[in-house]
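Following up on my earlier message about DLL. Here are the inputs again, as you asked, copied directly from the submission form:
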Amino acid sequence: MIYNPELECMDPSARKKLQLAHLKNLVEMVYARVPFYRSSMNAMGIVPRDIRCIEDIEKLPFTTKDDLRENYPHGLRACPQERIVEVHMSSGTTGKPVVDEYTMKDIDIWREAMSRTLAGAGCTRDDIVQNCYGYGLFTGGAGVHYGALKIGAEVLPMSSGNTSRQLMVMEDFNSTMLTCTPSYALCMAEEAVEAGMDLSKIPLNKGCFGAEPWSENMRKEIEKRYSMKAYDIYGLTEIIGPGVSFECEAQDGLHVNEDLFYPEVIDPVTGKVLGDGERGELVFTTLTKEGTPLLRYRTRDITFLIRKPCSCGRTTVRMHRLFGRTDDMLIIRGVNVFPSQIEEALIEIEGTEPQYLIVVSRGENHLDEVELQVEVKKELFTDITRGLEALRNRIENVMKSKLQIQLKVRLVEPKTIERSIGKANRVIDNRKI
Ligand code: DLL
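Thanks, got it. Here's what our run produced:
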């Protein structure tokens, strides 16, 4: 279902005009109200009237995560405090959190973006949405909640964790839609099997999963275990939270809500804007936000843009599902590898569970060593050791041929790798470089 056909299916040249009008307003507003933007534009010799066509966006300075941290907590706010009605933050692993401050209009933008997102997965007012993204400073819980309310669906505001209660509610309230991180979806499916619950008897038929990297094979696994369609949704706190882009029934790239968030893909080293289909770092400008609008924010997420028409009828530009992040990429003996590539290859191998941990260290010979811990299916673990040995060799060979890296596989018993209720941590990098 297309939530807002007027804006989602609009003629691309008309959309460009709309984007330009928004961009001009935005640049004038931040130049007048945010000292950080005024000085970074001045440093580049740019003033608001230099923006005459949408391509002029390339003249504007980038904003980085470090800029956000240096201006913590309110330095990038573009309106008086009394207009702010809600705040969200994401902590990351180091340093100060990044902050998003919303006016009532920003919340309306978020509701709109999330209604389009949930509708893209088929959500209607008849659905019962079990929302297991965390509620609180994290944007996942609130974002889905706002979108589901606007559609008129019924929301079960579960937040993450307490898996046995999740399963009980799923069964007793006949949830039809599930929203959580993909790793938590698998964790719940696993507990359901252990509890003797038959997930195929539950009316769940669709889910929106995101907030962490996941592979096409992991999608298949979730779809199989729940007998549902699993859709990828993307977003980040700095831009709005979830609702920046989403998959439709074609499941062929994520439609960007580009009348609200203007996407570019750049070469992460030179900063040069790349063409459609060229892989690089995703950059967003929030076209209509008021609280903490951002100019050309470098997300560190890696993808490419797709402009060819989609079978669903939306005309918005799509982004390929994320390949990873510039800061997630592991360089193993000079070879670039994303954890999601390892996952993709692993899930295809019969006998393994989609649970793994990548441990990187530097050996005595100063060369990188990777241990891939993989959970093995229960039936196999009790099997003769020869079967396990063959499986271990198989995984090592697949990784070698698909990813060009030599790694050591350690097969571990089912349920040994820590499960996550939010974003899963798949990598431990012990290298001290
Ligand atoms: O994770 C917002 C969100 C909530 C998205 C719920 C989807 C669903 P942050 O905590 O700020 O916000 O983390 C943003 O998570 O830059 C990506 O690296 C990663 N990420 C988000 N969605 C996806 C996805 C939320 N679908 C960071 N695939 C982003 C891969 C994702 N990575």
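One observation from looking it over: The radius of gyration is 22 Å. Hope that helps, and feel free to reply on this thread.
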